[in-house]
Amino acid sequence: MVLCPQIQGGNGDVTITNDGATILKQMQVLHPAARMLVELSKAQDIEAGDGTTTVVVIAGSLLNAAAKLLERGIHPTTVSESFELASRKAVEILSGMSTPLALNDRESLLKSATTSLNSKVVSQYSNLLAPISVDAVLKVINPSVVDNVDLRDIRIVKKLGGTVEDTELVEGLVLQQKISHLAGGISQVEKAKIGLLQFCISPPKTDMENQVIVSDYAQMDRVLREERQYILEICKKIKKAGCNVLLIQKSILRDAVNDLALHFLSKMKILVVRDIERDEIEFICKSIGCKPIASLDHFNPDMLASAELVEEVSVGTSKVVKITGVSNPGNTVSVLVRGSNKLVLEEADRSLHDALCVIRCLVKKRALIAGGGAPEIEVALRLAEYSQTLTSMDAYCVRAFAEALEIIPYTLAENAGLNPIATVTELRNRHAQGEVTAGINVRKGTVTNILEENVLQPLLVSTSAVQLASETVRSILKIDDIVNTR
């Protein structure tokens, strides 16, 4: 069972999540040092995408250790420098106990994504969301040359209705806009030729200060005939280019497309999707290989994209447009996330984002490490041994740093309903006997070889958490006073 807080905003909106970054982002934190912890969580979210709770818990434990050291008369600068030394040594230890990973090892990638999802509210769907996150990342990168992933190439579309089990990965494009239907309009096109318009198919308007006065019916008829002819010529040019699916960008100056234009396009069997947002243009072009067309003179066949199928699909209480079978696909994918209510939908989105970030971590630093508190307790033991080789105050401070890291297995045991003191003691003994991969098995309620339980996480998540927490604590130690300004 995953325990989560319920956060209620000032406008009455409720959020149920155990994602550390989300909780801290929505809390109204006033104390400057506490704000630094919020920024720490954001930094971990940007760097690794997962471990946002871990990094704050470690920072809190290090601050507690630092406070005890200061009470004993050790200078803040000495504590800060010792913590930096311990942080560097901890990263070395973590790197030494990691296992290299190849991106074609799909099974290990799935284990890492599943480990990330197992602590979430939607953990029961990890067997579905983990493969989706792995496939999504692998489809948007070139594993042989790329050492990072741009998650903007993975578009997540959230739709109410159904359950999280209905979530799917779409190799193509999913648009939230609906098809513009008229009488006899079409909702599906095979062998589509897709054009993306950035100009309007509607009659021009006068300047803001001007107006046109029509004094009799003959002039009115002439205006209507001219308008009809103007729009018809545009539609004929579009049809002549071979286009049968038209995506029209939203316009703020006038109607992007009017009813008369929709009527002509419907008669020509051209499917129309309007109100495409300006910030969607780049992703659409990259996904289906089309080029945005800014004027009618540039509407040529070579500006169009090809796809096997464009169709409108009912999703819950609304509809989406799917474009699949793209001839020249870019390195992008879309994920259609489903949920029975808004709270579940938002949490599924956050959980999927964390799983995607875990796979991104493995692309950036291709190494895995055991989970379940195993790395933290191993680092604590090894740092304690290392502190015995040091002299003066450094030895005392490094040992305090090592003991502070035991907060992670302690908290993990406590959250699992185990006796934290007994569990951490057993875990420490197992690691002292050389069992580097011994960790807390939450399902069995005991300490086991955590690798056999497939609890794995990226090395970058652990190293980033230790480094960022250490940096933040060192920054706080350097603060002498707080001055309020207006």
TrEMBL record:
Q: Which CDD domains match?
A: TCP1_delta
Molecular function GO terms recorded? ATP binding; ATP hydrolysis activity; ATP-dependent protein folding chaperone; unfolded protein binding
Q: What Pfam family is a match for this entry?
A: Cpn60_TCP1
Family annotation (PROSITE patterns): TCP1_2 (PS00751), TCP1_3 (PS00995)
Entry-linked InterPro entries: Chap_CCT_delta, Chaperone_TCP-1, Chaperonin_TCP-1_CS, Cpn60/GroEL/TCP-1, GroEL-like_apical_dom_sf, GROEL-like_equatorial_sf, TCP-1-like_intermed_sf, TCP-1_chaperonin
- For this UniProt record, give its keywords in alphabetical order, as a comma-separated list: ATP-binding, Chaperone, Cytoplasm, Nucleotide-binding
For whether the record's keyword set contains Cell division, the answer is no
Where does the record locate the signal sequence feature?
Answer: none
Kindly list the GO CC terms recorded for this protein: chaperonin-containing T-complex
Q: Does the keyword ATP-binding apply?
A: yes
Q: Which GO terms describe its biological process?
A: protein folding
Q: Where is the major localization of this protein?
A: cytoplasm
**Family the entry assigns:** Belongs to the TCP-1 chaperonin family.
- This chain belongs to the protein called T-complex protein 1 subunit delta
Its lineage reads: Eukaryota, Metazoa, Cnidaria, Anthozoa, Hexacorallia
